[in-house]
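ok so I'm stuck.
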Amino acid sequence: MAGKTEQIEAQQGERMVEVKIRFWTNNIAEGDGVIRPKHAWSSGVVRMEKNKSHGIVPRSPVPFHSLMDLTAVIERVLMAHGVVLHPSRRMKKYVHPGPGVRSSK
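replied:
not stuck anymore, here's the structure
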């Protein structure tokens, strides 16, 4: 690890970083204010949820236009809020450590 980052205690419910994905449901049913239950478009918005412990103040939601866009938009939202992701054990097998770094295998 490059450097130590500040560590603080967090209350239950504020230990996780939360991203909310919302799908549009307008104009699927006929009539104003009418929906078709469990039907949505494959587009919508991604937003961060407020989290005091992590210092996250939500910005404007970022739209996505298809499910293929979704992961890129989630990444953009996380980066815009300064969230740093650490590869999980399972993900590490796909991530190269970089030049000059020897594998522990």
